[in-house]
Structure formats: C-alpha cells, structure tokens
Amino acid sequence: MNIPTITTILTSTTEATDLKTITFRYPGSVLPGQFFMIWIPGVDEIPMSVSEITKDVKGITFRKIGDATHALYHLSQGSKIGVRGPYGNGFKPTGKHLLFVGGGTGIAMLVPAVEQARKKKLQSTVIIGVKTKNELFFEDRLRRCGATVLVSTDDGSKGYKGFASDLAKDILNKENIDAVFTCGPEPMMKTLLSCCRTIPFQAALERYMKCSIGICGQCCVGNGLRVCLDGPIFDGSTLKKVEDFGVYKRDAAGRKILF
Ligand SMILES: Cc1cc2nc3c(=O)[nH]c(=O)nc-3n(C[C@H](O)[C@H](O)[C@H](O)COP(=O)(O)OP(=O)(O)OC[C@H]3O[C@@H](n4cnc5c(N)ncnc54)[C@H](O)[C@@H]3O)c2cc1C
Ligand code: FES
After folding, report:
1. Which residues are CB-contacts of 50 (< 8 A; sequence separation ≥ 6)?
2. What's the CA-to-centroid distance between 8 and ligand 2, angstroms?
3. Architecture (CATH level 2) of domain 5-87
4. Is residue 129 very low, low, confident or very high in pLDDT (cuts 50, 70, 90)?
C-alpha cells in the first residue's frame, strides 16, 4: 500500500478554467474524504483527495497551481502515474438532513460524500462557493444525484453574492440541519464552525505532506495531530482545540504561513 502502483490515465476532463479531473484504474474500496499520493514521474508526489469512486476506477480533481499540478494537467489519456493509498479517515455521515459546504477546489472531494449520502436517501443540501461563475464545476453532477444545490459567488455573477459560509449561516437558521460537512479555505471553515454550536461538524484539512503515513511529522496540527493519519477529516470538538485551524499552515521547511 505504501509503494506507488503504476497505473494509466483513462480520462482527462477539463471541468473549469485550470481545473481538471483525471480518472485511472485503481481497484479497491475508498471512502469519500480519503486521499491518494499521486506520483508524477520526474516531477513530484502530491496528496489529492478522491473525487470519483467506482469499484475499479477512481478519479481526482485538481487546480493547476505549481510544478506538480501543471505536469499532471498536461498528462493525457494513456500517460502513466504512480498512486499509493488511500490514506486518511474519510467523512462519517450522521443524521437525516446533511449540509455540505464546499469552497473552491474543496468542492471536489465533497461530491462523492454527497453521492453516497443520496444513495442512502439522506436529504442533502449542498452549497458550492467560488469567486466567480467561470470557476463553478460539478453543479450538474450534484443535481443529478438529487441534492439541493445552492451556488454562491464572491462577485455575485451567479447565485448568492458573498461567501459560502454566509449562505450556510442563512440555511442553518432556516432549516433543521443535523450535521455539517465542509472542505475549502480554512478561514471559511472556521467561520462555519462558529455557526455550528450544537450541530455535529466535520471539516477536511490540507497540510503539506511528505510521508502521508504518520512518520515524518510534517503535517502535524494542534497538539501533534497528524493530518495524514488522524485526519484529514476532523470533527468540530477537535478543531476547537487546534489553535492553528484557520490561522496558519506550515510550508515544506516547517515555516508558518498565515492564511
Ligand atoms: C489531504 C490533501 C488532499 C488534497 N486534495 C486536493 C485536491 O483534491 N485537489 C487539489 O487541487 N489539491 C488538493 N490538495 C492540495 C495539493 O496537494 C497541492 O495543491 C499540490 O501539492 C500542489 O503542488 P504543486 O507542485 O502543483 O504546487 P506547489 O507550487 O509546490 O505548491 C502550491 C501550494 O500547494 C501546497 N503543496 C505543495 N506540495 C504539497 C504537498 N506535498 N502536500 C500538501 N500541500 C502541498 C504548497 O504548500 C502551496 O501552498 C490536497 C492536499 C492535501 C494535503
Ligand atoms: S505527512 Fe508525514 S506524518 Fe503526515
């Protein structure tokens, strides 16, 4: 499991500007919220959450931002990559009416969780928040599985004008929500946590990863929690005690980077 399996890219699909989904053959079970380490030969190995789950084929959805994601973006059908994992814990759906809040690229990893909730006939309201409407993706996929989808854009070009966390606050005041699941910018998730005093809350964290198997300590948050092993999904009561949540992350050299 900790050695990359070499696999072939089956499809490479542009979802929005600079955002792609690639799928690859990778048999085995994976939980929504878990991640793979994706090795791009000659470039780097990076963590990526699963965004598509079938028995034999898995997918990841990513934004082109640096060397590794640029290289991955330009690989086409038939190219080889290395995959190890899945790693981490995954979401644990609880309750009957679930609220999912995804911000930016964070939307991608929430979608399999919504699809599995809908398969169990759980009422699912999903807020997808982006800066502007050209960055929207997976809206149709979410509607197809029977979720209620609400869009927020920072510039008001589509749906609610403002942050996804502000729209979520409205929904939490109006509806009987049993649990909240989120992935996106940490300041957004922190605001959301403060709106969920008694409502169960689960959020996905991203930290710089090296080993991804709990050895190197690179991804630690709070009092020694390893995001790769104890997370990447953490519940609200744990996050309330993590002083770096929504405040800073660390780069590859361990330096603090404020959000
Ligand atoms: C558990 C987890 C799941 C993730 N899932 C997704 C996803 O589904 N889609 C997506 O687009 N991105 C995801 N990311 C972020 C993704 O791993 C980084 O964007 C990617 O590593 C950037 O690499 P780069 O060489 O293109 O960019 P760089 O120029 O190297 O870095 C750009 C940014 O990515 C961060 N980064 C770089 N390497 C790593 C690393 N090894 N671990 C963590 N962060 C890194 C840097 O701190 C920097 O902020 C995830 C990260 C984690 C930890
Ligand atoms: S990445 Fe090494 S302990 Fe998490």
Report:
1. 30, 32, 34, 35, 36, 58, 59, 60, 86, 109, 112
2. 26
3. Beta Barrel (2.40)
4. very high
